[in-house]
Design a protein that fits this description.
The structure is a single chain. The chain has 200 residues and is an alpha+beta fold. The chain has one domain. It contains five helices and seven strands, in the order βαββββββαααα. The strands form two sheets. It has a five-stranded antiparallel beta sheet. It has a two-stranded parallel sheet with strand order 1-5. A hairpin with a 6-residue loop joins β3 and β4.
Length: 200
């Protein structure tokens, strides 16, 4: 990929909030936003898995199984209108999902349950969509417990800080929104020849 221009003030504010959250909610591993599944990467690499779209640059990962969040690059630029992708390398089918029309939109998706459990879109899609659409949803079967990453008091405090700073409102209908994002942007994803064609 050519050199990518980055013009994204909201991303810069997210990096600033990461530093603040790490100071306010310290811990040895994954401090700050890392504790809610957003380990930020300032250098915006392409994560490089065969299933990672080649026209993307990653801004965060969950810390497990190579799961990462990326901007969809258009015209060699990342800006506040750049859509957000989630890539789950271990997913058995199409491992890349469109999870936000913009960075702010993506943050709204995870503001109630955090971002770690979004990796279950690749394994338990319907249950994960239900969990993210309803904060009171609870699993009734053992396998469904993966869709609800446990949050402690400080995790919730970090989510509240994030919601307050960016004035985030949860998605009202994740299934409809994810379907719409897929229809809008799926055809724009580019992959290595041996990569997974398409996205959910």
């Amino acid at each position: 990929m050519n050199t990518v221009r980055v013009n994204h003030p909201i991303l810069e504010k997210l990096f600033e909030l990461e530093r603040e959250a790490a100071r306010r909610f310290p811990r040895e591993y994954d401090p700050g936003l890392g504790r809610i599944g957003l380990l930020l990467m300032r250098d915006l690499p392409n994560f490089g898995y065969p299933c990672t779209p080649t026209n993307s640059r990653s801004f965060a990962h969950t810390g497990g199984e190579g799961v990462h969040f990326s901007f969809l690059v258009s015209n060699d630029e990342i800006n506040e209108e750049s859509p957000i992708l989630l890539t789950i390398p271990a997913a058995p089918k199409s491992p890349t999902f469109l999870v936000g029309e913009t960075l702010l939109d993506f943050l709204c998706l995870g503001i109630q349950r955090g971002f770690t459990a979004l990796e279950n879109l690749g394994f338990l899609y319907e249950d994960t969509v239900k969990a993210y659409g309803n904060p009171t949803w609870r699993p009734t079967q053992h396998v469904q417990f993966w869709t609800c990453h446990a949050l402690d008091e400080q995790d919730r405090a970090v989510l509240e800080l994030l919601a307050d700073r960016f004035r985030l409102v949860p998605w009202s209908d994740p299934k409809e929104k994810l379907d719409r994002l897929r229809s809008l942007y799926r055809s724009k994803l580019e992959f290595f020849p041996e990569g997974e064609p398409g996205a959910e």
